[in-house]
Every structure is written in structure tokens, then in C-alpha cells.
Amino acid sequence: MKKSTIEAVSDLHRGLLCETANLEATDYWLTADRATIFTTYGRILLLELYGEITEDMAGAAQPNFAWVGTTPVIAKADICAVPASIAALNTGNRVVWPGGTTAGTVVITGVEYDSPANAGVGFILGGVTAAGVNFVGGITADGSVADATNGNVRFTCVYAPMSKGAYVRPAV
Amino acid sequence: MGSLTFNYNESTQDRVGEVLTGIRVETPVLTNLTTYWTNPVTYAIFDVVGLVKVISMYAEITGVFDANATTLVFRWTGTTPAQGIATMGSASASMATSAVGSRWHFLGPGQVAAGPSAGISYFPAPFLVGGKTGAGVNCIGVISALVAGGTQAAAASARYVLHYAAMTEGAYAESAI
Fold first, then answer.
1. Which residues lie closer than 8 Å to A107 by C-beta, 6 or more apart?
2. Which residues in B have their CB inside 8 Å of a CB on A?
3. ipTM of the prediction greater than 0.90, yes or no
4. Which of A14, A158, B8, B47 has the fewest beta carbons closer than 10 A?
5. Domain-located, residue B48
6. Number of domains in chain B
7. By residue range, what is the domain housing residue B98?
């Protein structure tokens, strides 16, 4: 099977996938909420969301993820609860959005390159206006408690469109 | 900047979405308060032919609801063969002050529930409606909405959205409005 066919079948099986650049964790996992990592257009079903550590972490950050509406303006709301400190995570560990409900705790268990995936139901994010225009919003990587002082991370988002023209693209 | 595995055409993105979340049908945005948001009106929202798997069904708020305690019930009625109106679940909690972007989901036999905040809601468990007769003929029925409590008096509006999969040959659903 050609690589393109394998990838297309995978998209159908697990959803469309996009990922950010390799980012400095010190720019995203800080005490204060930080930055949009993915821009959402329209109504999408979020299936997987995780950050894969690409350089060993330091600093007792306790990260989470949130969604915020840009157009129309909708206040940022967490889509999961913060885990324990990720200071000890190494390259290959993942910080995984758990799905289920917004009370679910970010999953940081597992070993390098071997982690649980989202175990809960997906979330529907965004929407469509009365005029039929797709919402624009952002999935943000947020911190709390303490700053990350070292480490790199690449975020991955897997989703399915649920309105005409809906999609997700990396913001960074 | 990050990357996409594929940069599909919009139409392909839509098809992938339907493969993963079901075929999507929507009502228009319903703005007429007397017809759609006054207790105790009831109205058909989706016509169903055959057996379909309801993968996700919800009212998506497009005009903010006022403080009146409107509640919502989804119901099923068989047309052919005839079957009386049956509630598909208990009534929702009050939809008062629902913001634009809020979704009120049908969650199976339990209830209709709101997502945790505007723009964010949970993907529910699937549900089967309709069927096929002993002679192999697809049943015909209707999913309806009942405004079970509280009348909206300001500028409430919403659309109903159904994501489904056909479970019998020739089965489908479409907006009834």
C-alpha cells in the first residue's frame, strides 16, 4: 500500500491530524495562561490532543488545555483539569487531553513514547452562527502553579469536521 | 509553524468529517418564537426513513435565550407503521440564558443536557431510531422537539443538527422544516 493510501486510511480511521512546530515549553507552560496552539474553524469533533515532549522538562508546571472563541467572542474555558507537576517528564513522554468531561485530569502517565491515548468521549468545539458562518476559535496550551524552566514540546490535534468547511490548523 | 498531514480540499475534509461523525443534516435557524420557542409547542425536526443510528443530535443556540425557563424534550413518532408519540428522554434542564454557541445534546434515554460552556460540548453515545418491517419495508417516522416548559420572549433562536448513519438499506434522515 502506498504511503499516501496508508495516511488517507488513517485519516478516515482516527481523524484528521495536524501538529504544531517543535516549541519551547518555557513559552507555553507558564504560571499564567499563555497561547493558542491550534485555530479552529467551524464546529469540530476533538478526538485527540496531546503534547509530546521533545526535550526533557524542568520546572513544576501543571499544564492544561482550553478552548476560546475569537469570532464570536466566547470566554476561554478549560477542557480538562491540571495534572501533577510535569517536571520529571522526559523526551517521548506525552501530556494527553483525557476527553470525557472537562473535569478529566490531563494524563501524564506512561513511559517515553508509550502513553495512553484519549480514553473519554470527544468534545465538540466551536459552532456556526445564525448566518451560517463558521466560528473561529483557538485551542490553547495553558499553564498553572509554576513555570516550565526547560523543555520542548510538539502538540498534536486529531479532529473531525462537523460543519461545512470546518477545519483545524496549527497556530504556531 | 506546524503542519498538516494532508492539505485536503474542503469537500474532502467534509467527507472525512461525515465518515467519522455521521451524515449531517440540519434544520434552518428557527427564530419564530411563537412557532418554536413557546411552551408547549411541538414540531417535527427530522423525518426518518428506515433505521438510523443517531450519532449526535443537538440544538445549537444561535440567538441568546432569555431568563425564561425553557426546557426541551426530543420525541419519536412512527408514521408508517403508526406509533404514538414517545419521549426519547427526559426534559432538559432550563435553557434560560443559554449563550450563542451553546449546544443542548440529546444523550440517549437519560436526558438532554448542555455542554459545559458556549462552544464546548460532549459527544454523546449513539442511539437507534426507526426500523424495518417484517416485510423488509423501511419504517417512516419523525423526530420532534417539544418545548416542555418556559416560553422565550426575546430573541431566542437555534438550529437542530443530526449526525447519523443509515442502518438499513435505503435509510436516511432529513430536515422536516
1. A83, A94, A95, A96, A97, A98, A115, A116, A119
2. 1-6, 8, 10, 13-14, 16-17, 19-21, 24, 29, 31, 56, 60, 62-63, 99-101, 103, 115-125, 157, 159, 163
3. no
4. A14
5. yes
6. 1
7. 26-175
